[in-house]
Amino acid sequence: MSLSGALSNALSGLTTQARQATLVSSNISNATTESYGRRTLDVSSRSTTWGGVSVDGVTRNTDAVVLADRRLSDAQLGYADDMQTFASKIEMLVGESGEAGSLTTLYSNFENALLSASSDPSSNQRLKSVALAAEDFTEKLNQVSGALQDARTDADKSIASDIKSLNDSLASVKQLNDSIGESVLRGADASSLMDERQRVLDTISEIVPLRTVARDNGTLAVYAASGTVLLDPSFSGQPAQIGFTPQEPITADRTLADGGLSGITINGHAINSTNEGPLGGGTLGAQLQIRDVVAVDMQAALDGIARDLVDRFGPGGADTTLAAGDAGLFTDAGLAFDPLLEVGLAARISLNSLVDPGGTGTWRLRDGLGAATQGNVGDATLIQGYSDALDGLSVPSSTSLGTGTSSFAGHVSDFVSAISAARVRADGEQSFSSAQHTALKELELSKGVDTDAELQDLLLIEQHYAANARVMTTVDELMQTLLSI
């Protein structure tokens, strides 16, 4: 080999090792950076007369299978987290059985107040205690109903926010695809652009479960796990436009099924806007589930409880002073209840103002709401009748409570138990999803940058660099010797 050939070989080696050192340094400094892909240098022997090493490019190393599974777990965990947060919030508001201020405790207080008043119906204080306990119970129904509608309103806002983020992120992925494609065609290193694209896709994966497919020149096609195309450079190359119209505030009578709330569209076409639809499975699906299914079902059960309470104390019951069409002890916002307006009743139910505990009419709890004057102060017939009405087994008028016979306490207990069971299920799903996500995240990181291995490579690079430098020094000495002859 000639001296010039040896010099060329050594120079190419120095250049390659310097580039290798830069990549290793980048790998070590970004070992904990999210979405960073480990870089390796692609080299080959030069086929020219001079020989040496040629740098062919930079490879960004990721495990596509682990990455795909981790993104699906992102969506699953996002769904589980949102559902658990909602279930815990409602359970906390309803309260555990026996807890001060809980729905069951307030109902027990009402029952006990009736029993106490029936033992001494002449006591105005005991009659007032009945009115206060009844008012506390109805206010609790109002409060829980309001919280359910607030949760639906918040879910609607979250849907709008998720869809905006989804549209913005897909537009960013499209731009990054274009930049990556141009870089690859120019032979430039597109690794940093790919890191950014992975980061953007990771923000989408929590909203909607994703699958990606490699296309030409380093670009990616993006699909929802359902197979719905979100972006594909092989087709139009334009991201799908997800449409949604938020609604505020949301009331119990507004539902997706009745057309009172907006569904989701893709490129102007309506899709199945539930968690079972094309975009379900992530935080977007969770908010749809809360807004249109879970909270709606809870509201229906709560309205059924309110209706059953109104029916048990209405005309045809224990209070014989009431005529058909009169408002009973419990009213619909102060008026007689209309059976056709059950939806949202829990938010409107209230104690009849005739027995307002702040007034002087609590004697009507003993003598009847329609009584013109006070009767025998020792007569506990009506108060006992109220207690019997609560304990009586009857088929509820509301279909949301089922078709079996039950006491009013049974309906309250079933509702509280259902809320608690929903929270327990949500806890279990969140625990499983979190464990799975952690395992996949650790597996992904284990296939990323190993700083120990990178430091070992750096030592080898240093040795190779020194060897090439020594060759160049030797060639220089030989050339100086030849020139001095």
Automatic annotation (TrEMBL):
Keywords: Bacterial flagellum, Cell projection, Cilium, Flagellum, Secreted
Domain of life per record: Bacteria
Keyword Secreted: yes
InterPro entries according to UniProt: Flg_bb/hook_C_dom, FlgK, FlgK_helical
Locations listed in the record: Bacterial flagellum; Secreted
Entry's Gene Ontology BP terms: bacterial-type flagellum assembly
Chief location of this protein within or outside the cell: other
Keyword Secreted on entry: yes
Pfam families: Flg_bbr_C, FlgK_D1
Molecular function via GO: structural molecule activity
One GO cellular component, as annotated: bacterial-type flagellum hook
SUPFAM superfamilies in the cross-refs: Phase 1 flagellin
Flagellar basal-body/hook protein C-terminal domain mapped to chain residues: 448-484
Positions of the Flagellar hook-associated protein FlgK helical domain: 88-313
Matches recorded under NCBIfam families: flgK_ends
Family that this chain belongs to: Belongs to the flagella basal body rod proteins family.
Protein name per UniProt: Flagellar hook-associated protein 1
UniProt source species: Salipiger aestuarii
